[in-house]
Specification:
alpha+beta; about 15% helix; about 90 residues; globular; 6-stranded antiparallel sheet
Length: about 90
């Protein structure tokens, strides 16, 4: 039995090329902005691919590419997907 150690991480700390799934949007993000992000496809457990981190965090959510300021990306919480089948 392999333990499940899914840790929530800020989106701003995820390396480009990594696929993650959304854990939640932090309360630090303005309510209107949270609503807009949700409308663009950022919903809990949805897959997100990080395309770049500099100069802004750019992600692909569903078929939508979004550029986010680091001040926002720091408060978007994600889980790294586990693609390993190790014992």
């Amino acid at each position: 039995m392999s333990p499940n150690h899914d840790a929530r991480l800020p989106l701003a700390f995820i390396a480009p090329g990594t696929e993650v799934r959304l854990a939640g949007l932090g309360e630090e993000i303005d309510a209107l902005q949270r609503e807009q992000l949700t409308a663009y496809g950022l919903a809990e457990s949805r897959p997100i691919r990080v395309l770049q981190q500099k100069p802004m965090t750019v992600i692909l959510a569903e078929e939508v590419e979004l550029a986010l300021e680091h001040s926002v990306a720091r408060h978007i919480w994600v889980y790294q997907k586990t693609n390993e089948n190790s014992c």
